[in-house]
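>> received
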Amino acid sequence: MSPDASVPLDGAVFEQLGRVSTATLATQLYKRGIRQPFLVGLSPVGDGFRGFVGEAFTMRFIPSREDIDPMGDPYRTGNVLQWEAVESVGPRQVLVVDSRNDTSAASAGDMLLTRAMKRGAAGFVTDGAFRDGAAIAALGFPAYARAITATTRPAAFHVADLNAPIACADVAVYPGDILVGDRDGVIVVPRALAAEIAQPSVEQERLEAWLHQRVRDGEPLWGTYPPSAGTLRAYEAWKSAHQERQNPEARV
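>> returned
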């Protein structure tokens, strides 16, 4: 478990992280020495959601083995940890599955995702595949995977454990880490850095939106992106004027 997972995060941290892009978070983490926190290759299933923010509830798969996971009814193999996970996940948590980047069988289907949604989960993420892709897309529930398959999970996977450190898309995920998803994908924010980067990320988004408009207006990259000292002064003046328009009594 992440060393500080037992320490609650302020709700404002979740709200701020939910306002920014995974690209912005990647930049903020890079500044703090985290080189590759993005879950490369995972895509949102359906377009009925913008993203999510949630604490990691982890699940780890290993290959199934014939003497442990016999053929027959796939729902009665005796490997019930997947059900336990879905019935334990709570609000502001996201189920994160280590499928070893293997899409040969499903990490879950629409029944389990629907139940997780009803329990208030923030999302469901796997570096493998889901089944029932059309049904999951119709839920409007934040779900991310590499692929869609009809093959049931026990055909290839055994659930080995829950809430232990895992790798998802080759990124280390500890229980309690903060995952943020948007339409581009999912990023892992180490829990110890979540509060530190939340407000700077909001400010970076605001600055880059202003810089993007300047580029759209025809400004060259040199001096604009990244911004020169003069550009930053212009931004601060714009921000001050903008804040005064938003809050005309701010200086009273």
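>> The CA atoms of residues 13 and 195 lie 6 Å apart.
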